[in-house]
């Protein structure tokens, strides 16, 4: 049977590669002799592909598949690797400091607002093929999406308005265009390397034993410290390309320039060099220190990391203050009392949206609590759920 299968494959390639021109809806007979037996293969060429039938019903044929070329395999592996390293830069940071992110590979999930097919009549190249999409990448309440990016997509797959898609691409700068009412609009521009329907996670690359990996979900920073802005994130088990460290060794630099706290990485190399280029730290900070969250304050915060209870500050398009801190055994929710194991520290934050559009607080600000010993306490959805909080 193996010899029949091999002969079948050879016959198909010989038919296509050496015969006369093959036309759709044609049938070709290919006699194959194996020992004393002769089989006749009928090869049918159609618009949808090639099908093969054999004269002897005892012979079972598998599906004829196209074998990808070595360069195609290499290109697909390279695409998978690039997508695995993609990060999601907060939209405000992508827009405000766009020149810092040009050339970075990013991933966004969003809703297609508009699709425009590229048109070219003469002297066309690859850049003249495909589609232009505007995709809103900030998910708000009630199914609303905001914060559009310009996506240059050279592929052939057709996407429709209102599709939810995952976009991987390279930041190319800012794009200006004229709206229907004639006003000029500027938004971040991405050259897509792949787009898929739905929300799709980055692919995971196989890691060799002992390679650096993230030991939990964590944020990536623009520098070695929680006072730097969040520029992306990693998931538990993601491979990390660690190339350097800060002087203290408690922060590690990745090849793409992002930073991650050292305690979030397993199998980090012991002989890492000290990074030669470290971004200047922001001058003011809200003190929200965690494994991946802090927001530079723009006004109202003192020089340092401590902010007094009741003091208002502005950051990330919000004005907020910690109005009250309580330590309680019982948690009161809408007038009912729920008793939980242990004690709860309840932090009451008053937040005001200063932006022109809708937004939600946890999109670019993630509050945590840090005790005097530097131990970090973050919000626990599981713990709160069990407490019926």
UniProtKB/TrEMBL annotation:
> For the SH3b domain, which residue ranges apply?
208-268
Print the keywords alphabetically: Signal
Q: Where is the signal peptide?
A: 1-24
Task: List where Polar residues composition bias occurs.
Answer: 283-298
Q: Which domain of life is it from?
A: Bacteria
Q: Which InterPro entries match?
A: Immunoprotect_excell_Ig-like (IPR029050), SH3-like_bac-type (IPR003646)
For region Disordered, the annotated ranges are: 279-301
* Record-given protein name: SH3b domain-containing protein
Specify the species.
Answer: Caldilinea aerophila
């Amino acid at each position: 049977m193996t010899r029949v299968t091999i002969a079948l494959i050879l016959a198909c390639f010989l038919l296509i590669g050496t015969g006369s021109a093959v036309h759709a809806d044609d049938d070709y007979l290919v006699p194959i002799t194996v020992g004393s037996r002769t089989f006749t293969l009928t090869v049918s060429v159609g618009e949808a592909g090639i099908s093969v039938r054999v004269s002897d019903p005892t012979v079972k044929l598998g599906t004829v598949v196209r074998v990808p070329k070595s360069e195609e395999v290499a290109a697909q592996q390279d695409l998978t690797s690039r997508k695995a390293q993609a990060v999601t830069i907060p939209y405000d940071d992508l827009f405000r400091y766009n020149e810092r992110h040009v050339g970075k590979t990013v991933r966004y999930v969003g809703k297609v607002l508009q699709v425009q097919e590229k048109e070219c009549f003469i002297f066309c190249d690859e850049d003249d093929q495909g589609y232009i999409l505007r995709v809103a990448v900030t998910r708000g309440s009630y199914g609303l999406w905001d914060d559009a990016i310009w996506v240059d997509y050279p592929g052939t797959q057709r996407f429709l308005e209102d599709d939810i898609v995952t976009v991987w691409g390279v930041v190319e700068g800012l794009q200006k265009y004229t709206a229907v009412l004639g006003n000029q609009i500027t938004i971040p521009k991405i050259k897509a390397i792949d787009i898929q329907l739905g929300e799709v996670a980055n692919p995971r690359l196989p890691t060799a034993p002992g390679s650096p990996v993230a030991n939990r979900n964590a944020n990536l920073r623009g520098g070695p410290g929680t006072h730097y802005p969040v520029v992306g994130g990693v998931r538990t088990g993601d491979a990390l390309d660690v190339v350097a460290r800060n002087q203290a060794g408690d922060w590690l630099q990745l090849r793409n320039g992002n930073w991650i706290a050292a305690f979030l990485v397993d199998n980090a190399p012991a002989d890492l060099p000290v990074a030669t280029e470290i971004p200047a730290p922001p001058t003011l900070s809200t003190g929200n220190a965690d494994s991946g969250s802090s927001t530079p304050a723009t006004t109202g915060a003192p020089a340092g990391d401590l902010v007094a209870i009741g003091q208002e500050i502005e950051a990330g398009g919000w004005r907020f203050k910690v109005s009250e801190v309580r330590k309680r055994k019982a948690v009161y929710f809408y007038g009912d009392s729920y008793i939980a194991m242990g004690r709860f520290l309840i932090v009451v934050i008053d937040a005001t949206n200063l932006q022109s559009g809708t937004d939600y607080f946890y999109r670019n600000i993630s509050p945590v609590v840090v005790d005097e010993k530097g131990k970090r306490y973050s919000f626990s959805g599981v713990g709160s759920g069990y407490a019926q909080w």
